[in-house]
Amino acid sequence: MKKRIVYTLGLLLSAYALFPDKSGGRNFPNQAFAAAPADSAQVTVQKLYEDLKNPWGMAWLPDGRLLVTERAGEILVF
Q1: If DSSP codes are grouped into helix, strand and coil, which group holds residue 14?
Q2: Chain Cα centroid distance, residue 15
Q3: With bands split at pLDDT 50, 70 and 90, how would you rate the model's confidence at 23?
Q4: How far is CA 6 from the centre of its chain?
C-alpha cells in the first residue's frame, strides 16, 4: 500500500514538472509588465585608477566625488 502512494505521488509530481503553468507569469489580472529598454544607450567610460588590489565598496558624495574603499582599509577619493 505504501509503495502505491509513493508511486502515485511521484507520478503526480513528474506530471506537474513536465506540464508547468501556462499563465505566462501574470499572477494578477491588472498586473503590468515593465517597458522594454531603449535600443541604445550612450555610455562614456573613464579609467580613474588601475592599481586597486581588493576594491570593497563605492559611494558617491553629495558634491559629486566618488569614494572607493579597499579591503585593507584604504579610502580613495575621486
Answers
A1: helix
A2: 30
A3: low
A4: 37
